[in-house]
Amino acid sequence: MSIQRNIPLLLAGKHLAEHYGKRYVSIGTSVYEGRYNVYNSNHEFGPYGTLKSDDPNSYNYTLGQVKNEQFFIDLRKANGVTKIWLNEQHPIFSGITTEGPDIPKTVDISLGKSFDILVQVQKVSPSQLNQ
């Protein structure tokens, strides 16, 4: 879609959510730490991305304190203070594709309002690239 032609951008899954209604389940991912493949400032693709969530206000950091290597949470079943926290805006790693000093690694979102289920992976490593 072209922004210049004033066609509104659709959020990922919006069309599917409208089509399937309550049968649609939105699944998000979160990572605590590790390395990942990304383009660097020289436009080279490889294992240049690093992540270590040290912001105690971020979803990544808080979920990273859980002692399981990976787990999922059905956010729809949260209640009480957990539901309040999930519905607040907090930083989360945005899954960037390019590393650079002017490119933010996080975005502020409300997990509880953005996803139905969240998959948390505590430590990631880059996939091997075939040359």
From TrEMBL:
Pfam families: Erythro_esteras. PANTHER family: ESTERASE, PUTATIVE (AFU_ORTHOLOGUE AFUA_1G05850)-RELATED. GO terms for biological process: response to antibiotic. This is Erythromycin esterase family protein. Signal peptide: none annotated. Gene3D superfamilies: EreA-like (biosynthetic domain) (3.40.1660.10). It comes from Bacillus pseudomycoides.
